[in-house]
Write a structure and sequence with these properties.
252 residues; alpha/beta; TIM Barrel; nine-stranded parallel beta sheet; 9 strands; 42% helix; binds indole-3-glycerol phosphate; lyase
Length: 252
């Protein structure tokens, strides 16, 4: 059983998975952020790779990506950095990137380097399930789990098709649109998450627009855990570690 499967199967608490942008504040801060999150009890971390054309990202994550790119941070550097401290990180790490950088890097090489760096899973949000055979075999061979997204606007058959795959967790996107803090959630949220849960044997984690402890608690009534991106990115940028702890604590 992989580290990621161990972390997410037989969980008796709700999961909390933060997203951070690698290289925001300098690549040398990545290790300290991961150690901080690990010490404070998160279940996994999504590490974003800065990319020039992040179509699914809202302004907060885009800005973090621009800061990282202007510091010269690349996919190669992110993988080398993660590899350099892999012995100290025990929680699963999920690399979040887009199809183009992976193709440019070479799919097979990407999968191997991820495995060598101690990465457990990947999220490639612009990779539709119809095209995943381009990536999935190489990732599987390297022991990297592909985490798939379903969205609140996906038709039911599509939810079923996507949610029945994989070994880690299903990422349920709770809004139609891009990442970023929001004040309210989709009216179909509860029934959407119920559909995803029914279609999958895996834990269902909800993400997009979750930015307060109240959101975390509300969302967790309908799913197995949450993913928080933009708010975590913003709080790290402001060095507000206290509020990060409060968000994590809301899931426990
Ligand atoms: O930022 P939010 O609204 O909290 O959403 C999570 C999200 O940031 C993270 O999982 C993510 C970052 N970039 C993405 C692109 C697509 C899907 C998901 C993501």
């Amino acid at each position: 059983m992989s580290r990621i499967q161990k972390a997410f199967q037989g969980m008796n608490q709700k999961a909390f998975v933060p997203y951070i942008m690698a290289g925001d504040g300098g690549l040398e801060t990545l290790k300290d952020k991961l150690l901080f999150l690990q010490e404070n009890g998160v279940d996994a971390v999504e590490i974003g790779v800065p990319f020039s054309d992040p179509v699914a990202d809202g302004p907060t994550i885009q800005q973090a990506g621009i800061r990282a790119l202007s510091a010269g941070v690349s996919l190669t550097q992110v993988l080398e950095e993660v590899q350099s401290f892999k012995e100290e990180i025990t929680i699963p790490l999920i690399l979040m990137t887009y199809t183009n950088p992976v193709i440019a890097f070479g799919v097979e090489r990407f999968a191997e380097k991820c495995a060598f760096a101690g990465i457990d899973g990947c999220i490639i949000p612009d990779l539709p399930i119809e095209e995943e055979d381009l990536f999935a075999p190489s990732l599987e061979k390297a022991g990297i789990e592909l985490i798939r997204l379903v969205t609140v606007t996906s038709p039911e058959e599509r939810i079923e098709k996507i949610a029945s795959k994989g070994n880690a967790y299903v990422y349920a996107v709770t809004v139609a649109g891009i990442t970023g803090a929001r004040s309210g959630f989709h009216s179909e949220l509860g029934s959407f998450l119920a559909k995803v849960k029914k279609a999958s044997k895996l834990p269902v984690l909800a993400g997009f627009g979750i930015s307060t402890p109240e959101h975390v608690r509300e969302m967790n009534q309908h799913c197995d855990g949450v993913i928080v991106g933009s708010k975590i990115v913003e709080l790290f940028h402001e060095n507000n570690l206290e509020e990060i702890k409060q968000l994590i604590a809301a899931a426990k």
